[in-house]
Amino acid sequence: MPTGRHRRDVEDLLRESAPRVLAAVVRRFGDFADSEDAVQEAMIDAARQWPVAGIPESPVGWLIAVASRRMTDRIRTDSARRAREERLAVEPKPGPGAEADDTLALIFMCCRPELSPASAIALTLRAVGGLTTAEIAAAFLVPETTMGRRIARAKKTVAEAGEPFGLPAVEERAERLRAALGVLYLIFNEGYAASEGPDLARTELSGEAIRLTRIARLALPEEPEVGGLLALMLLTDARRPARTDGRGELVPLDEQDRSLWDAAAIAEGGRIVAEEIAKGAVGPYQLQAAIALAHDRARRPEDTDWNEILALYGLLEQVAPGPMVALNRAVAAAMAEGPERGLELLAEVEPRLEGHHRVHAVRAHLLELAGDGRAAHAEYSRAAELTASLPEQRYLIHRAARLSPGGA
Amino acid sequence: MKFMLLQYYGGVEGLVPMTEWAPEEAQAHIDFQLDLNAELRERGELVEAQALTAPELAKRVVSDGGAPVVTDGPFPESKELLAGYRMIDVESEERAIEIAARGSAAPGPGGAPIRDRIEVREVMWMSEGG
Fold first, then answer.
1. What's residue A299's pLDDT?
2. Which residues of B touch A189 (CB under 8 A)?
3. Helix or strand or coil: residue A383?
4. Residue B44: which of A149, A358, A388 has the nearest Cβ?
5. Chain B contact for A49 (CB, 8 A cutoff)
6. How many alpha carbons lie under 13 Å from residue B38 in its C-beta half-sphere?
7. Global pTM value
8. Which helix (H) or strand (E) holds B3?
9. Regions in chain A scoring below 70 on pLDDT
10. Measuring CA to CA, which residue among A327, A322, A290 is closest to residue A309?
């Protein structure tokens, strides 16, 4: 009987192999949607056979061979595809591409701008991340059939776009990279933000996003935002062990047990931020990573360099203006220059965020800092009414209750 | 984003109960609901669709920790009882409203849209908000 440990190794190996195998099969057969199915089937075969029969000498070669055989079978049995078979015969065999390039090309393919975020996320996790439809469905708490249909539709969209396999043309590279990084960050957040639900599946999403971003950085060393995003993920993920308590309740940054933070991840994230910023093309991910680093470096909350964070938010507002950035800058200003200054900035941004729970949560926090417990109580309560997040609502109710006239 | 689209018994003022409809009218209504479910599933948007038994079978339970007080339905004081729901996973509130509108216009007697009142409620996230 295969042990759990064995199965785990096989799963990891399969996931790492997935993009290489898929890239090879797409290169050879040209049809992304069918190739993806064939690779998924080959991986399911492997997941069944390898733990029992042992891992083949060349796992990637085995998977490519099995997936290719399935593709050939499909093409043979499907008369409507005869034309493709003929084309295949004359297509030149491309030389071996670097592994990271292949993975990156697949990420671009799965993050096409026509796809909704939810579809791009699901397709990326399956085609590039090598997760099964069942695993993705479990992570997003939807039935497997629904997730299967979502992925199938996404693949159809990619196929209809008809883009040849490879990196996008130079003139649209920046735009496509922004979209791809956006999807990777969403995958990370889906995994990071969860404090309930199938924890394991969720944690794996963050790990998956980090792994893929790492590979993308290898393929695009000249793009500092890729490293910026990687650093941001690492520096955020470093706090994971401290951000929820034993019952899964959120622990705010200034109350977290910082000895639980992952020092290695912080060190690596810090190194990457420094390297990328030195390249001289600063962007939103690098700045957010620098802000995360400023928090991570503080041994105690009171050691936090709020002046630096305030300055970084000022830069971020120039590079990527938006009401949420302005809101965060108001918090930093309150910490650096006093709650009154923060409340002033908050009043400026409020018209752009009418009715958003974060405005009320921030004002509550600043009012509490300013010593106005009664007003803070009302704002925490209002924020709790407006949020769609259950863990956040519990947190806000808790804060409000602490300040309630009847409370302790 | 996940949403519950909730339907109520008594959601439509003056609508005769389905048991009084012509059989083909009732069939058309049921087909419409099943087709809508199939379409949402095909689009990767359906999480779950359920109908609940009639108010006649409802029970109300109140307990202070001891023996519960159980009341059998239907309850005269409440005209409105949950009849069923769809849980959907969609990109936006706009899309949820679009689907709710489709459900609201389900065919009734004479094939006319019944204008069912659908309540759209976002399901709270288990994750931290943005």
1. 94
2. 127
3. helix
4. A149
5. no
6. 6
7. 0.86
8. strand B2-9
9. 1-5, 78-98, 193-202, 406-408
10. A290
